[in-house]
């Protein structure tokens, strides 16, 4: 039986309160979007979760469709918990989501009450958990009334299947409706999850401010732009990278000449700061304290360890921020 380190909270990554709640999250959370499905190395997945927990990462982010195949990340995570973390459930924050396609037919997709209620029961069975700490509506689907989806989340919390409700990838005007509906029912939205990186900054235009105004935390996914904000792309698209694969989440056409040049220049700044580019990219998001946490993915313990060092990064000087902003503005020409 694996025995987690008893010193993991001492001198490890810092925690931040999630909005106006009393819940603290580590500023870096581990996402299981990639590398935890049946197609991946179970031993490596186990090692990464052990390493994360030993180093203060108590928040693990899932969704019902994570894999491949869909559902397998939840199943594998449940197995890892059962085999290695008995007695530690109360020291973990485990989140999951529903709203993207999970099974064929009219009820295995989107954000209806039917889908969310069926999905959370399936997710609890796959993980072997009695409850999730956070359960999200994974997206606004463009069809289901927000009020219907929020009522499902309200009932999920009231039934004890989740402690907190969250939303993910909601347009600002739909997020406002969600916040009002949840707050009126006495189940305030704990957290909003959306894409945010140096190269993807749309949330700055309203999502972040609205979350803060509503006492809601914010957590960023894809903070490294699917690996583009690492040293892998300093010389273009390397063989075997996500962008080189036809099925990868990072598309070849996204790796423009302007983006590669920006990555090189950002890497120079990171080097002057004594960081890797990935560490600086994570620290750049976390400089805004309305951001509760960033979700990192990892394919190895070494990569995860490198990312966790972002919490040790020095603060940015005004000159550094100006230089970074100039580089990022120029990179937009490649969109």
List keywords for this structure.
single chain, 335 residues, alpha/beta, TIM Barrel, 8-stranded parallel beta barrel, two-stranded antiparallel ribbon, 10 helices, 14% strand
Please provide a written account of the structure.
The chain is built from ten helices and ten strands. Helices cover 36% and strands 14% of the residues. It has a single domain (15-334), classed as TIM Barrel, CATH 3.20.20. It has helices at residues 42-54, 72-84, 113-127, 146-158, 172-184, 207-213, 257-272, 277-286, 301-308, 318-331; strands at residues 15-17, 24-26, 28-31, 59-61, 93-98, 132-137, 162-168, 189-195, 217-221, 293-296. It has 335 residues and is of the alpha/beta class. Helix 6 links the parallel strand 8 and strand 9. The longest helix has 16 residues, at 257-272. The model is unreliable at 243-247 (pLDDT under 50).
What is the secondary structure topology, with strand pairs?
Blueprint: E1 15-17, E2 24-26, E3 28-31, H1 42-54, E4 59-61, H2 72-84, E5 93-98, H3 113-127, E6 132-137, H4 146-158, E7 162-168, H5 172-184, E8 189-195, H6 207-213, E9 217-221, H7 257-272, H8 277-286, E10 293-296, H9 301-308, H10 318-331
Parallel strand pairs: 3-4, 3-10, 4-5, 5-6, 6-7, 7-8, 8-9, 9-10
Antiparallel strand pairs: 1-2
Helix pairs in contact: 1-2, 2-3, 3-4, 4-5, 7-10
């Amino acid at each position: 039986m694996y025995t987690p380190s008893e010193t993991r909270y001492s001198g490890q990554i810092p925690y931040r309160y999630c909005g106006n709640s009393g819940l603290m999250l580590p500023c870096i959370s581990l996402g299981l979007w990639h590398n935890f499905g049946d197609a991946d190395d179970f031993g490596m997945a186990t090692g990464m979760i052990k390493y994360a927990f030993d180093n203060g990462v108590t928040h693990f982010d899932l969704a019902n469709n994570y894999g491949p195949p869909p559902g397998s990340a939840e199943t594998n995570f449940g197995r890892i918990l059962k085999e290695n973390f008995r007695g530690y459930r109360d020291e973990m924050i485990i989140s999951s989501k529903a709203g993207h396609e999970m099974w064929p037919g009219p009820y295995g997709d989107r954000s209806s009450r039917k889908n969310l209620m069926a999905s959370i029961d399936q997710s609890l069975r796959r993980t072997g958990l009695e409850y999730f700490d956070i359960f999200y509506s994974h997206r606004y689907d463009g069809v289901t009334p927000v009020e219907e989806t929020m009522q499902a989340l309200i009932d999920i919390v009231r039934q004890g299947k989740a402690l907190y409700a969250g939303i993910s990838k909601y347009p600002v005007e739909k997020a406002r409706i969600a916040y009002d509906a949840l707050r009126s029912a006495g189940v305030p939205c704990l957290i909003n999850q959306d894409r945010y990186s140096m190269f993807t900054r749309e949330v700055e235009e309203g999502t972040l401010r609205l979350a803060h105004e509503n006492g809601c935390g914010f957590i960023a996914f894809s903070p490294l732009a699917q690996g583009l904000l690492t040293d892998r792309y300093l010389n273009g698209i390397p063989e075997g990278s996500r962008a080189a694969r036809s099925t990868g989440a990072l598309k070849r056409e996204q790796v423009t000449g302007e983006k590669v040049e920006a990555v090189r220049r950002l890497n120079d700044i990171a080097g002057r700061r004594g960081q890797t580019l990935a560490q600086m990219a994570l620290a750049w998001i976390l400089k805004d304290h309305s951001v509760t946490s960033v979700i990192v993915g990892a394919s190895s313990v070494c990569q995860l360890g490198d990312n966790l060092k972002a919490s040790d990064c020095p603060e940015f000087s005004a000159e550094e921020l100006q230089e970074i902003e100039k580089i990022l503005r120029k990179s937009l020409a490649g969109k």
